[in-house]
Structures are given as C-alpha cells and as structure tokens.
C-alpha cells in the first residue's frame, strides 16, 4: 500500500509512537490516508502517490483490494483544480456542504451534542489535546481517522473502545453517503475504501475483544 502525506488539519495531536508490527503500520497508514483525504483535497504529490498503489493484490478478489484499485484509478484521472471544487461542494459549500462529516450529526441529527462531549472526555483520557486555532469540532471524520492512525500502536482494548464508541456507530454510514453524493467523483472511491476498510477494522478489533478459544488439546501460551 502507498502512504500519502499526512498533513491534514487534525483537531488533536497525540503523544506519539511507532507502529509495532507491519499489520499495525498498514492500519495506521490507511487510517492516516483517510484522514488526510477528508481534511483537504489531495495535492499533486498525493495524487501521484495514490496513482502508484501496487496493483498486485496476490490474486485476492476481496472488496477492500478492489477499493484500493478504484482509488488508484480515480487518482490517475483526477485534476487538482477539479478536486478543490469537489471537496468544497461535498464538505464546505455555502455554509455547509452536501455532507456533514460529524459524529454528533449522524448520531443525533444535531451538531455539538452529547457524543462530542463524550469524545472530548475520551480524547483527554488518551492524552490528546486540542490544537489552538482549529475551529472544527473533534468529531469530524478527518480528525477521528487521524486519531485512530495514532493509537494503532497502543493497547488493543483502548483501540476497540474508542472505535466502538466514536466511529462504529456512524462512520461507515458516512462513507456510504459519500459514495452516493451527487458531487462525488474522486471522493466516491474514497468512500468505497473507507467503507470496506471499516468492515476489516470491525472484524480485527472484534477478534481482539473476543478471541477464538483454543481448540481442544491445544496448549495456551
């Protein structure tokens, strides 16, 4: 997988850490890429990197592999000037864009509601602090993706709790809406990748919360 530059306006910054395994590095890169693409339209450099995504899927026909290839193809066709307009129409617009990428909005129908207050408490407990000069609430999709990219090095239980409380209830629905948005062209592929990656993450984190019992006669380490 190719990692795009992760230079988005995230609401928070963590204490840091380095992925401890290739699997966690892949997860962190994917979360970071989604956060990068949802925070701002991709630059020429980002598009060039995405267009070089390895086309070898080891014979896999799964939906996540297909989503990566859709993103690669979309990046190869995209023009930065058009992406600026697309991003504006989707997420900002005149007062608001076609989509509202906020957890509180998806979970309650309103902004700045109880889900945001709970998120702020959990972020504080994880050691995150809000950046000065950033006006976006912490429950926007870009910031949450970046948070997940940063805690992939931490305890599996903390990852699972954060995901289940603040991402699982709504973000997959947001990615589906992104695919269906009338303004989406390049971002339709971003929505496809996000939806399929969410499915993989749900299974991954569910496994760590409820690991399969050892087979009869198998010695536990």
What order do the helices and strands come in, and which of them pair?
Layout: E1 12-13, H1 22-39, H2 44-50, H3 63-77, H4 80-92, H5 103-108, H6 114-125, E2 129-130, H7 141-151, H8 156-166, H9 171-180, H10 186-209
Antiparallel strand pairs: 1-2
* Silhouette: globular
DSSP summary, beta strand count: 2
Strand order of the largest sheet: 1-2
Q: Provide the CATH architecture.
A: Orthogonal Bundle
Give the helix/strand class: mainly alpha
Order of helices and strands: EHHHHHHEHHHH
Helix content: 55-70%
Termini separation (Å)? Answer: 32 Å
Q: What proportion strand?
A: under 5%
Describe this structure in words.
The protein is mainly alpha-helical and 221 residues long. The chain has one domain (20-209): TorD-like (Orthogonal Bundle). Helices cover 57% and strands 2% of the residues. It contains 10 helices and 2 strands. It has helices at 22-39, 44-50, 63-77, 80-92, 103-108, 114-125, 141-151, 156-166, 171-180, 186-209, and strands spanning 12-13, 129-130. A two-stranded antiparallel sheet has the order 1-2. The model is unreliable at 1-19, 57-61 and 211-221 (pLDDT under 50).
Give a brief rundown of this model.
This protein is an all-alpha fold. The chain is built from ten helices and two strands. The chain starts with 11 loop residues before the first strand and ends in a 12-residue tail after the last helix.
């Amino acid at each position: 997988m190719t990692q795009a530059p992760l230079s988005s306006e995230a609401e928070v910054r963590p204490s840091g850490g380095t992925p401890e395994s290739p699997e966690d590095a892949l997860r962190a890169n994917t979360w970071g890429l989604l956060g990068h693409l949802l925070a701002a339209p991709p630059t020429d450099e980002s598009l060039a990197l995405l267009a070089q995504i390895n086309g070898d899927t080891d014979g896999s026909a799964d939906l996540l592999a297909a989503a990566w290839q859709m993103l690669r193809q979309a990046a190869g066709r995209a023009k930065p000037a058009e992406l600026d307009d697309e991003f504006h129409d989707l997420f900002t617009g005149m007062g608001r864009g076609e989509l509202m990428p906020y957890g509180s909005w998806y979970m309650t129908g309103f902004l700045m509601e109880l889900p945001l207050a709970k998120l702020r408490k959990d972020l504080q407990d994880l050691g995150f602090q809000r950046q000065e000069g950033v006006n976006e609430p912490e429950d926007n999709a870009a910031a949450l993706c970046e948070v997940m990219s940063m805690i992939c090095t931490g305890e599996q239980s903390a990852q699972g709790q954060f995901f289940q409380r603040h991402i699982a209830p709504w973000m997959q629905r947001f990615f589906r809406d992104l695919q269906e948005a009338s303004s989406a062209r390049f971002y339709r592929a971003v929505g496809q990748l996000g939806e399929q990656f969410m499915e993989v993450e749900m299974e991954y984190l569910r496994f760590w919360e409820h690991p399969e019992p050892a087979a009869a006669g198998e010695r536990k380490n």
